[in-house]
Design brief:
transferase; 244 residues; 6-stranded parallel sheet; binds farnesyl diphosphate; UPP_synth-like; 15% strand; single chain; Undecaprenyl pyrophosphate synthetase; alpha/beta; Isoprenyl transferase; globular; metal-binding
């Protein structure tokens, strides 16, 4: 069984899972949080090197003030707890997204967590907070244009490598497997550039119920996929061949 080098997960379905149990949505988020800690440990023990999760999007601010407050308090608690997991798993943690839109104390916790984990290299864990794929691309283009104006970017066509280096995920390989829990089959503005050749796996299981067994199913399906990256199996690219 081949392990994906990088798994990305859209953590969806906390609210519906809780509602089905006759509980408030906030209960789903609490259990979703605990599950993230558990699954992050599991994924690390399996030997997967990169994990990226979508926790809060640039569009999630449309939710009620009450729910946003619950989520922000959970993130506060999680960022502190994550220092323990980072140490245990020898895991470097990075927050992707626009931290400027978050409360100052959350921004401080992010800096502390990133700082304390910066030398770990067994696993690399990215948490998308106040993240939007389009927002990330626009922020990257803005910085790239400014650097180009100052002559810091090679003249001419911008290469994929150069553009990559301006994204929040600079230095992180693209995901091999994207999992979305809870039945929806869309990207919801997650890693729009990075998912170009990623294999997608959608499951009806909501995030709080997504466990090691469900993860094994996703990896099994991933192993059945034939990744050709636009090429043809068994055929080597010919020199000077035109690519259609
Ligand atoms: C998706 O469920 C969950 C969210 C948008 C909230 C954030 C995720 C967590 C709290 C899990 C832990 C993450 C971190 C980083 C601590 P939903 O509310 O969209 O559920 P629904 O689709 O059923 O309404």
């Amino acid at each position: 069984m081949k392990l994906p080098n990088h798994i990305a997960i859209i953590l969806d379905g906390n609210g519906r899972w809780a509602k089905n149990k006759g509980m408030p949505r906030s209960y789903g988020h609490v259990v979703g949080c605990d599950n993230l800690e558990k699954m992050c440990n599991t994924i690390c023990e399996m030997g997967v090197r990169y994990l990226t999760v979508y926790a809060f999007s640039t569009e999630n601010w449309k939710r009620s003030q009450e729910e946003i407050k619950v989520l922000m308090n959970l993130f506060r608690r999680y960022l502190k707890r994550c220092e323990r997991s980072a140490k245990k798993n020898q895991m470097r943690v990075k927050i992707i997204g626009d931290p400027g839109g978050l409360e100052p104390d959350i921004q401080r916790s992010i800096c502390e967590l990133e700082d304390m984990s910066r030398d770990y290299d067994k696993m690399f864990f990215q948490i998308a907070l106040n993240y939007g794929g389009r927002d990330e691309i626009l922020r990257a283009v803005t910085r790239l244009a400014e650097d180009a104006r100052q002559g810091k970017v090679p003249e001419g066509k911008v290469s994929e490598e150069t553009f990559d280096s301006y994204l929040d995920t600079a230095g992180i390989p693209d995901p091999d497997l994207l999992i979305r829990t809870s039945g929806e089959q869309r990207l919801s503005n997650f890693l729009l550039w990075q998912l170009a050749y990623t294999e997608f796996y959608f499951t009806d299981v909501p995030w709080p119920a997504f466990d090691k067994k469900e993860l094994a199913k996703a990896i099994e399906k991933y192993n059945e996929r034939d990744r050709r990256y636009g090429g043809v199996k068994g055929q080597k690219p010919e020199e000077g061949a035109s690519c259609l």
